[in-house]
Structure formats: structure tokens, C-alpha cells
Write a structure and sequence with these properties.
Length: about 425
Amino acid sequence: MDRSEKPNTNNTGIGCILGGCGTAGCALLIGIPLLLIGGLVFLFFLTPIPINFIAGLIEEDNPNVQIDTISGNLLKGFSIPFVEFPDEKHPDRINTLRDINVLYPNLLKGLKSKEFDFEEISVGSATLYVTYDSTTTEDTDPEGKPVAPEETSEPVSSDSGDQDWELFRLRKVDINNIELIDPEKDFRFQLDELTLDGLEITQDHFQMGQLTLKSSALDFSMSPLDIQSGSGLQTSSKLEIDAKIQPNKELHVIQPIQLAGNIEFLEKGNVKGRIEGFDGKFVLHFTENKKEARLKVEDLTLAEYFEVEPLLPSKINWDTTLTETAENVKIADTEAGTFYLGDALFTVQPGIPEGNQVALAVHQGDEDTLTLALHNKSDQSSEVRTSSFTLSSEKNPDRHQRDILAVLYFDSQFEDLGIEEQNRILVTLGQPKKVE
């Protein structure tokens, strides 16, 4: 080869890679992964596939659970036509929830801005079986008396880390036709409607819309509330409450009980307002001191509203100021008061009783003087009480309370009563009933 000829350094293959073909190849190398990532993001956040996949795993681990095909996505929320699962202890009892909706504006935006934001939570209907386990694991001493649990000295950390939410918002709650059933106790509760027109909570603001509840046992409504905190509490309006307890055999209510009133929130956690119920026979006034309230009861006979096994007082009249000490002990400063146990009139002693008693009442009979002491629930003494009151005789201090109640209510000795009357007395005293 002639040395004067220049070698051909133009390699066609290399030039193609570095030229136009190379640009397309680089675009493909970059674009394909991006498309794959974008597709995965789309599938994960904007389709129901991951939610249905999770539902499938739940059904696989629990063959008796059925979850209908879910629509929606993780980004905006989802809807479930129905969910069925058996009761844990009674597999033949099937719990059902229908038309479940959990919607939110934008999950990613909420997580980024630390906002817990829901557009809607709703349930169209549900049937749920409930059971109450009455067994306890309470420790006892050698004499069979309950022993208080030991206190632990482990500190509880108040540091919630960097995941504190700056806003909780729930724009709408709409729950309908919820039925709770306990076959063992023949208990059935029907929730017809529960709606909440918005709830928003921040560090210094609490705002709640109209709350409405309608059920087989209780109708309840509460007006919108807006509380702004700062140096103190300020409220835009009074909180209006209206409730009606319906006659219900599970609650032992035999005639409607109306409760209504209003509460206004003031600075430093104080409130003022008024709650009235039992056809105006019960009135509770909240003063501007949050630890003080005025209670006035006039001619209230509880047996007119409740049909229960314990023996109840009748014709209750009580005018008292209720306060709470710094140690959270309830104190009643009685102005005046009377009530009946059977046909015996008891007079509530005025002023503040000594010790851990809420009230002290005395019956001056022809043959004996009886004293009833109403005890404070916060009494932490070592004495173990089975009821909230004690009844004693001045003439015979050793006289048993059940004998006193037997004479007051049935004009007979306890041992001469039938099993039903004896059990009513025992239940009133918080003692086990006799086996029939």
C-alpha cells in the first residue's frame, strides 16, 4: 500500500452508534426504565390492582372471609361493595358490611404535608355480632379479696417523633343501618343513621359540623362547634345538645327520657351552660368554674323511667353544689334534700359530709334512726365495698343492711321473703344473687 494514502478511519459501525442511531438508543435506555417506573406508579396508586391484591391475600389466609371486588385506588380512595367474615367464637354467625367508602383528596400530598385528610367515610349497612366476656383475671389475696395491680415506674415518653400530623380533616361521615346482635343476651341494637358534617383538628383549632345520631335506643344531635385556642379558649357559638333515650328493654328504659341543653366553652378550660332532663326534674348548671356545677333534682322517681332489678329511691329532691378538689375528689355541698326508700323519708344533711362521703341522709323513725351514707367513687381506702352506699341502724349497729332494706321495701324480714325479692335486695347491695 502506498504510504502516501491516508488510512480510512471512518468506521461505519462506530459512527452509527455515536451518531443518529446512538441518540435513539440512549433515549430507549433512559425512556424504557422511566416508562416502567411510571407504569408501576400508575398501577400502584391509580388502579385498584394493589388493593384487590391485598384483599386476595386476606382471603387466602382466612378462607371464611369474603371481600367483593374493590374499586378505586390508593391515591384517591376506594369502595368495597361488601365484606363478610364469621364470628371468631361462632363461625355460623356471619358479620356483613356493605357499601364501604373511604375517600380522600390525595394520599401522597397528605403524607408530604403531614395532613390526615379524608373526603368521606361511609357505610351503607352492616350486621355485626357482639359478645361480652364477663370473665375476669383479677388477682386476689389469700382471703379472696381483690388486689390492686402493682404500679409500674416505667416512664411514658411523650415524644412522638417527627411524624406528628399538622391537620386532621374528615369532611363527611355517613353511616347507616348498622345492626349489633348478641344472641346470648338477646341483645339487638339498630343504628339507623350517624352523620357528621365535617371535623377539622389542628394544634390550635377544633371545628366540628352538625352531628346526628338516630337509633333504636337513642336519638342525639349536637350543633356545630368551633373552638380556637391561643391564650385561652374562644368559641364561635354555644354547643346545643338534644338527646332522647327511647324505651328499650336492653337498657331497661320504660318511657322516653329527654335531655337537652347548651354548653359554652370559656377561657382556661372553663365552661358554662345547662343540661335539663327527666321532664324538667333534673337540672345541671355549669358555672364558669370548670370544677363546679349546681345540681337540682325535684320530685324524681327513677322507677317511672327505668325497670331494673335493684331497688331505687323515689321522690328525690336534692339541691347541691358539686365540686372537685385538686386531688380529683368529688364533694357535694348540699343545700337541702329528701328522698324515700320504700315508705321511709330520708333527709339529706346540709353542708359537706366528713370523710369520703358525698352525702349523708337520715331517717327518723318511731323505733329507730337509720343513716344512709353515699360514698365517693374515688375513695381509695383499704375498705372493700360492694355498693356505693352503706345503710346503718342507730338502735342496732350490727343489724344487716339486707334486713333494713327488707323492712323498708317489703315490710318483712329478709329470710321470710321470696327468692325474687331477696335477689333484688342482694343486687342493690352489690352482692351475688341466690340460685333459684
